[in-house]
Amino acid sequence: MPRPGGPSAQGDDNDGQKAAEAEERNLKRKCIDYHAPAVLDLESRLYRKACRTAHVRDAPFLQPHSSYLPRLGLPVMGASAPCHSMAYLTYMAHVTRAKNSQPVMSLSWTPGGRRLLTGNQEGEFTLWDGINFSFELIMSAHDNSFRCMAWSHNNNYLLTSDAGGNIKYWSPSIAPVQSFDTHNGQPIHGLTFSPADTKFASCGDDATVRVWDWASRTEERVLEGHGWDVKAVAWHPRSSVICSGSKDNLVKLWDPRSGSNLSTLYGHKNTVTKVAWNDNGNWLLTASRDQLIKVYDIRAMRELCSLKGHHKEVTSIAWHPLYESVFASGGMDGTLLYWNIGSKGSEEPAARIPYAHDMAIWDMKWHPAGHILATGSNDRQTKFWSRNRPGSTAGLEIDAEADEEASEVLHDEMELGNHVGIVIGRRGATIIAMQRGTGTKMHVDQVRRVLQIEGTAKQIAAVKKRVGALLDRVSNDGGMFGGYGGGGGMSMGAGAPSGGGGHYGPAGAF
């Protein structure tokens, strides 16, 4: 008979502890369930008055308190009286990362928004649940890296393209239908459907935009006029007009019926990375590597505004599906910004998430209901962003001028353990980049293996968050960077005493 403290009893205790931990993880699993807000929206529609002004006046306005959480409905509830702050999704609901993951190059919600489909650098599809964000499926789709995916307006077919010039048709069940090669084997960066779904257009690094017949898969037009790689293409939501952006810094408007160039916009000074039509058909949004986002009124062919909020290249943009004046943008440095350009908007970002990702945000898509934004990045992660609960300020920046204590310079330390070399980076590149991005002064004490930080409370919190994410990523990679531990043998830049750490970078970088 086993003793009370014997191996059998210890094994039972371990099994019970593991079961309890698994149950706790399941209880803590995050999800964004939109069924309750949808029911609330349907219920409120039954009691709305016929007069528009009456039900706007009687609409319940949420107050910044947790007791108003049960009244939080879908964004469509406020379509008649928009509250644009509900479109700024600053709360990170979940982070997904598949095993043996690769950079996420493109993504798209399935029809109805039940699942999220991502394409990575290895040409693989990954399917994620849109409510509890769990992994569902991974399958090989292309032989080369993904570049773009686009659903038809009737949601009957999916188009995908890769870096080898291949285009594939897919059914809604993600079953392959057709495949063909084009653009002389060059990467295809953009796909877009015509309003009737009978035609679609593609663009690639062969400096052309090609118009195709959907049913016969035959090429109807080759739109030539760009002097370099064409990086983006978008078909007007209701008219026979195609917009394209290129590495020659130009944005061109085309007539797909005749193949003629209707107009050329010369607003950018570097590669145009993305173009997007607003659903109203009047506004054209363009993003570029010159760190600018421009909005054009296509009726008068004039620039409405030029938006500067990114400190690196703008790599992705997406209009909100319900609020026509709101859109989101992502940068090469992983910054996520929300903008409102309406009558009550501003040329400054409405909300900013400085370290949404550690690397470039290649693509972003809104959920059809507008309550979730999915972003895919070169850091191999897909993140889901949702609305804050009433009264919460998660992800929002605090105005330093409103609080005198926010400007007080503080000193703090952070333990690095065996990852001193990772934080320093090659010749101090990593720590210099952090100093420039956060505006702090940082010093690595290699004897004590700590990071000394000098800055405001907000800046110190940002540094700790960024360094913590870096160390977590290194730990999750299985110690592949373990050879840098201690940092004693690394080149640390001029002015740093050997073995004792030092300040990195010029004083102007602080």
Give an overview of the whole structure.
The strands form eight sheets. A four-stranded antiparallel sheet has the order 1-28-27-26, with no helix packed on it. Strands 2-3-4-5 form a four-stranded antiparallel sheet, with no helix packed on it. The radius of gyration is 25 Å and the shape is globular. A hairpin with a 5-residue loop joins strand 12 and strand 13. The relative contact order is 0.09. It has helices spanning 7-28, 35-46, 52-57, 420-424, 429-438, 457-476, and strands at 91-96, 104-109, 115-120, 124-129, 135-140, 146-151, 158-162, 166-170, 176-181, 188-193, 199-204, 208-213, 219-224, 230-235, 242-246, 251-255, 260-265, 272-277, 283-288, 293-297, 302-307, 314-319, 326-331, 336-340, 351-353, 361-366, 372-377, 382-386, 410-415, 441-445, 450-455, 502-503. With 510 residues, the protein is an alpha+beta fold. It is built from six helices and 32 strands.
